[in-house]
Design the sequence.
């Protein structure tokens, strides 16, 4: 009569390990925002936008960016006047009024895909 009890315990342990293993591997894709200023760049890597986060933006003059947020997240530049700009997904240029942005905010939301732009800055 001990054999069924041992089989039940082993089966329960195997089920538990499978559930724990499944949850550990099913996490969200990482997002990355790279801000570019001349020859300098700064990358922000994140796995979630919950809770929203703010980062100080250390580069002096932003020119362009590469934005790859996970689904349901968006990257936002906040300039010194407090105005904000949602960055498109892909590669884009920073509008002049945000070239000296002081904050980067990662938050829930969606962002449009970047439109094709020639290699010159507008």
Sequence:
């Amino acid at each position: 009569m001990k054999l069924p009890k041992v089989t039940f315990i082993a089966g329960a342990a195997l089920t538990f390990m499978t559930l724990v293993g499944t949850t550990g591997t099913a996490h969200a894709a990482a997002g990355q925002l790279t801000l570019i200023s001349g020859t300098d760049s700064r990358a922000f890597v994140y796995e979630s936008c919950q809770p929203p986060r703010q980062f100080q933006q250390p580069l002096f003059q932003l020119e362009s960016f590469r934005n790859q947020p996970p689904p349901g997240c968006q990257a936002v530049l906040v300039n010194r006047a407090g105005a904000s700009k949602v960055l498109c997904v892909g590669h884009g240029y920073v509008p002049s009024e945000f070239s000296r942005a002081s904050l980067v905010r990662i938050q829930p939301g969606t962002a449009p895909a970047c439109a094709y732009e020639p290699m010159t800055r507008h």
Helices lie at 2-25. Strands lie at 31-37, 40-46, 53-56, 64-68, 73-78, 84-86, 90-93, 103-108. The mean pLDDT is 79.
